[in-house]
Amino acid sequence: MDTTPNTWRLRVELDDSPGALARVTIRLADQDCNVLSLSVIPVPGGVIDELVVRAGPGLLPADLVAAVRAEGGRCVGITAADMRDLVDAPTAALRAAGHAMRDPGAVCDALRAVLAADSVVVLPDDAPDHETSAQSNTARLVTKGGLVVLARRGWSPFTQVELARGQALIDLLSDEGVAMPQSTALLTDDGMAVVLRPGRAGDEEAVAELHSRCSMGTLFNRYHSGMRTVPRRWLHRLLSPPRGTTVVAQCADRVVAMGQLIPMSDPHSAEVSLLVEDGWQGRGVGTGLLAALAGAARADGRLELVGWCLPVETGLLRTAARAGLPTAVRREDGLLRVSITTGRQEIAGPGRRESASRQIASS
User: Fold this and answer.
1) 291-331: per-residue pLDDT in tens?
2) Fewer CB within 10 A of the end CB, N or C, for the chain?
C-alpha cells in the first residue's frame, strides 16, 4: 500500500514581477495539483509565498520543486502537510494560545504549532552552549523567567514573523502565569529514582551507549533487524525526529531507556516505540515512558498510538495495560499492529510513581 503523503506545504521565493505566482499555480494545475491554501509571509527584502498543495497521483516532492523552478522561482522549503495546515496563521496562533492556557502540559505543542517546527524543547539550566547556537533552522526564545526554549525545523528556515509570533506566545503565557513544561520524576517499582525528560542533541553518546548495553533480543524487538549497535547517523534522528517527540529516561548520568512518538499521515494517530535497557525492564520505566508519550500525543490531538510488535512479543501490551491505556491488536504484514487509546483509565497494578511536575516537554 502506498503511504506517500499527497498533501504538501511549500515555501516559494518568486521574482517581484506581475503574474509570477499565477504562472506557478497554473503549472501546478497542469500536473493535476490542487492549491488548497495560499499565504504571504513578509521577509527582509520581500515576501515568501506559502502554498498547501494536494499533489496529483504519483507526483513526488521533487516534481513540485521542479515546477516552481521552471517558472523562475526557488523552493525554500517543502514538508508533508495535513488538514490542520489549512488554518491561517493568526487563527492557528489564537487556538494554540487558548489550548496552552487550558492545558499547561501542551505549551511545547502550542509553540510547535505556531512555529510549524519539527521539535520544541525547554532546555535545562545546565544545557551546553552549543544547544543554543544561532542557526536559521533553530529558534532560540527566552521566557521572562530566563528559561531557554529551543525550536528546530529542518524543512525551512524560520522567518522573523514566525519568531515574533513564538516570542509573543511565550510572553502571553508568562503573563498569564502558565508554567513552562519541566522534566518528570519517576520512582520505579523497586524504589530507584529516574528522570523522564526530552531528548536533545547532547544525548547522542549516552543513547549510543544505551544501545550497546541492550541485548540482541531487545534491539531486535525494537528495530526488527539483527543490529548490534545503532549506526551513528541514526542518533540525531532518534533524538530529534521530524515533527516527533523523543523522551529519555535517565538515572544519574546514564540514559536507561528512550521512547519516540512519530505523527502518522492520519492526524489522529501517531506511531510509538520504546527501548528499555534489559536490566531496567519490568521496573515501571517503560510504563512511565509510554504514559508520558500518550500525554504528549493527547495534547497534540492524537487519539491513537500505534506500535508494531513481533507476534510473540507482548511487552508493549503489558506496558500499555500497566499505564491504564486500552489496546486493540490485529495482524498486518507478519507483525502485530497494537492500537493504544491515548485516553487514560485507572491504572492497574501497584506501580509507584511520583511526579516533580505534571508536565513533560515535547521534543
Assistant:
1) 989 888 886 778 899 999 988 888 999 999 999 999 999 99
2) N
**What is the full DSSP assignment across 124-187?**
PTT--GGGG--BTTEEEEE-TTS-EEEEE-SSSPPPHHHHHHHHHHHHHHHHTTPPPP--EEEE
Residue for grid cell 520543486:
65
229-to-209, 218, 248, 261, 318 alpha-carbon distances in Å: 9, 11, 18, 21, 26
pLDDT tens digits, residue range 72-92? Answer: 899 989 988 876 667 777 888
Helix, strand, coil shares of the chain, percent, nearest 5, are: 35, 30, 35
Most confident range, picked from 79-83, 183-187, 281-285: 281-285
Task: Please indicate, yes or no, whether residues 210 and 306 belong to a single structural domain of this protein.
Answer: yes
Please report how many Cα atoms fall inside a 13 Å half-sphere around the Cα of residue 137, on the Cβ side.
Answer: 9
CA distance 57 to 34: 11
- Domain total in the chain: 3
* pLDDT recorded at residue 283: 93
DSSP state of 199: -
Residue 355 lies in a domain: no
Output the domain CATH number for residue 63: 3.30.70.260
> Could you tell me where the DSSP H helices lie in the chain?
20-30, 61-70, 89-102, 107-115, 160-175, 204-213, 216-223, 232-239, 285-299, 315-322
| 3-state SS class at 256 | strand
Tell the burial category of 339 from Cβ atoms under 10 Å away from its Cβ (0-12, 13-18, 19+).
middle
Residue range of the domain that includes 77: 7-83
Give the 3-state secondary structure of residue 289: helix
